[in-house]
Amino acid sequence: MTSSVTVRVPGKVNLQLSVGPLRDDGYHDLVNVFHAVSLFDEVTAVEAATLTVRVEGDSAGLVPLDGDNLAIRAARALAARAGRPYGAELVIRKSIPVAGGMAGGSADAAAALVACDRLWGLGLTQRDLLDIAADLGSDVPFALLGGTAVGTGRGEMLTPLPVRGTFFWVFALADGGLSTPQVYGECDRLREAAGERACWPALSDQLAAALRDGDAPGLGKSLVNDLQPAAIMLRRSLARTLQVGRDRGALGALVSGSGPTCAFLAESAEHALDLSVALKSACRAVVSGYGPVPGAVVV
């Protein structure tokens, strides 16, 4: 029997995050175009009597080790689906920014589902894992699938989108994180203060065409994030970071998800290097990557 399983899982950038009206259940209807990028966490599930978690790597001290940890919650949900108690030590090696709007916690939950399913010999289908993932959070199902996909509902109902070629990205990391519920709350507050009524969101035809055609300039012009004004209101320095990237020729620039990571689309790998150098003075750290890449996979 396997004594340990390691799964590699990517972070994501939201190419379109359109936020609809607030629903009765406290969530918003979304159109959320997820794009998996080559910033990876690794989660190893090791045979053990009980469920525990240990975190290594970038900003490891910011990751909860109790019941709030999404990877632990994922493993518990998987054991509950199997109908019996299981144990594992989950070792998370972080490279995806913590609380950075790139779904690092959700990625770790997806990886824990895949790793524990293999470790415990459950043999669940991807559909089964996606059902469990949807109950854990809106971003978890996409981390299982990877690639590029549009999410509707809370973002958990996914449809893959066709993509031609590879897109090159630079990510400016900020000090500290932003609370996703706080950013959504600020978005609602700003809309109410402006007398703005939220429209029902729809997938951007221009963005979908740019992805299908491998049109990086067209994609850059189509990037949109309805949460960006709220994230900037809560972290004013993000406006300067975005402007630095635009001034250095980024094809597109936006706050990733609920922030505070800022994402910049580059013309090429060489241009990404130039952007990285320029952005170092405007943020805590800079990392680069490319997409799309596959979702959670055993390595």
Q: What would you note in describing this structure?
A:
The mean pLDDT is 94. The protein folds into two domains: 4-161, 2-Layer Sandwich (Ribosomal Protein S5, domain 2); 167-291, Alpha-Beta Plaits, CATH 3.30.70.890. It is of the alpha+beta class and 299 residues long. The chain has helices at residues 70-82, 104-119, 126-136, 140-145, 180-193, 205-213, 216-222, 228-234, 237-247, 269-279, and strands at 4-22, 28-47, 51-57, 88-94, 148-152, 157-160, 167-173, 224-225, 252-255, 262-266, 285-291, 297-298. Strands 1, 2, 3, 4, 5, 6, 8 and 12 form an eight-stranded mixed β-sheet that branches. A four-stranded antiparallel β-sheet has the order 9-10-7-11. Helix 1 (70-82) packs across helix 3, helix 5 (180-193) packs across helix 8 and helix 6 runs antiparallel to helix 7 (216-222). Helix 1 links the parallel strand 3 and strand 4.
Portion of residues in beta strands equals 25-35%
Number of strands: 12
Helix content: 25-40%
CATH class placement of the largest domain: Alpha Beta
Q: Tell me the Rg in angstroms.
A: 19 Å
Order of helices and strands: EEEHEHHHEEEHHHEHHEEHEE
Structural class: alpha+beta
What is the number of helical segments per DSSP (H or I, 4+ residues)? 10
Distance between the termini: 17 Å
> What is the CATH fold-level name of the largest domain?
Ribosomal Protein S5, domain 2
Low-confidence stretches: none
Number of domains as seen in the coordinates: 2
Family: Belongs to the GHMP kinase family. IspE subfamily.
Catalytic activity: 4-CDP-2-C-methyl-D-erythritol + ATP = 4-CDP-2-C-methyl-D-erythritol 2-phosphate + ADP + H(+)
Pfam family, one: GHMP_kinases_N
GO molecular function: 4-(cytidine 5'-diphospho)-2-C-methyl-D-erythritol kinase activity; ATP binding
